[in-house]
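anyone else get weird line breaks when pasting these?? whatever heres mine. first is seq + tokens for prot A
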Amino acid sequence: MGYSSSLIQRKFKDIVGRRYEAVLKDYSEFLLTDEEMLVPEVRSILMPLDIFVHDITDEAIEVLSAYNATISLAYITDAGVIELLEQALNHASTEEFRAKKEEEGRELLERTAAKLKEHGFSTQTRMFVGHKGDDVVRIAKNHDMVALCRRYADGESTDVSVSPIVLRICQRVETPALIY
């Protein structure tokens, strides 16, 4: 007998017959099934980074420490920005911008990987130019979880809410997502 069934049986032990079945049916959507009670095994976590992600929070590290997982850090430079610069500026200026963003990305990857290693995580890093939302969804298929900073791909917004790209990624990925 599952947890939800035993809980309902205890709560409604004096109710018998068809009434019990009706109560069980009505309350079942609010209680977790035995399957849903199982914590999924997480061995790899994707953590996308960009220029708007400045640091991983201590709270996020604390949550991630519940999993004995390898964290894959991926710094993604927006291909759309590179394409716009190619059209508006000359090739040399675009390459200079790209090199500067790659250097900033390398520094962020190194800083984040070092902080995670201090807390006992094994990490992998990669950097590429791509489409931030689509590429995260594509790469997430190879991982058990996605950890997203709420500012990922947000721009210079002063609002404290979650980035629209982060929300779209959470809707499209099939794996669990953590927003920090």
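and prot B, same format (seq, then tokens)
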Amino acid sequence: MQSGVYMLLKAFAAFYLSLYRQYTWQPIWLLSDTPEDHHFHRRRFTQKYRNKQKIVRSLWFSMSLLVLAFPAMPFAVFVTLFTTFLSFCILDETE
């Protein structure tokens, strides 16, 4: 019992330490919700891009359910690679 509580506290401390490191070492523009007009991450905050993210999120969720329904390793690898390809295609910003 004692070791389980110790492991839990250790994991809790490690999580918050990593969170602290993330906020102190990341560039400030990565944490901002309203970047400047000419900033290269501006596209992440547009409604069009957020809609694309929702599509990709639902795609990954449905494909993970499909893999859980048919748990064969070759099928899981194929579905994962195909879903990655589709995600990049959907989120692509090129004209």
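btw re prot B: The CA atoms of residues 18 and 24 lie 10 Å apart. The chain has two domains: 1-32, 42-95.
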